Amino acid sequence: MFKEIIFDFDGTVADSFGAMMEIFEEHKQEFGFEKFGENELKIYRQLGVAELIKKRNISVWKILKILRVGKKLMNQKIKSVKPFKEMKQMLMKLKKKGLVLGIISTNSEKNISKFLKKNKIDVFDYVVGKGSLFGKTRVIKNILKTRKLNEEEVLYVGDEVRDIQACKKIGIKIAAVTWGFSDEKLLTKNKPDYLIKNKEDLIKTLNLF
């Protein structure tokens, strides 16, 4: 039985894809992406962020710049970002069952808190908004240690291949959602413990109702 559920933020709880694409489009020259359109989006969804970085030969310094600047710019757009349909209701159901809920994200805690307050989502016990693009493994390990949790007591809910990979390294269960950034076929190929196609699938997976 899971005691805690850790959620990814962008693409899992928050439907922030549109805001992110606006940032890339408005600052594509600054980021070094003179061409960033539907083709790149399709590649991203089909390959995942690691393969896209490799395929486009994106340097480490450019990734760091995009993350740093992107977080600041997102603070201006976060007010227009909404939770995915039925996400708020599902989170409230989970909270009423006594589960501890958390968020881990490469987005900033300031942005996440702003989003939660605006959308009146008051169910999360903690929010961790730090770490590199591929630093979730370390962050999750720290949470397990700090909160004195065993691996089998935690479920992670995310939408990308890097979420699956991070959880497999640690040994915690991963529920991959298909409404986020990564293509369903790509998620399936990377063998998450659970493939979640709608909000009720997660409820059923937890076998709480």
From TrEMBL:
One of its GO terms (cellular component) is cytosol. GO terms for molecular function: phosphoglycolate phosphatase activity. It holds the Pfam family HAD_2. Keywords: Hydrolase. Its EC number is 3.1.3.18. It is an enzyme of class 3 (hydrolase). InterPro entries: HAD-like_hydrolase_sf, HAD-like_sf, HAD-SF_hydro_IA, HAD_2, HAD_sf, PGP-like_dom2. GO terms for biological process: DNA repair. SUPFAM superfamilies: HAD-like. PANTHER family: PHOSPHOGLYCOLATE PHOSPHATASE. This is Phosphoglycolate phosphatase. The lineage of its organism: unclassified sequences, metagenomes, ecological metagenomes. The gene is gph_52.
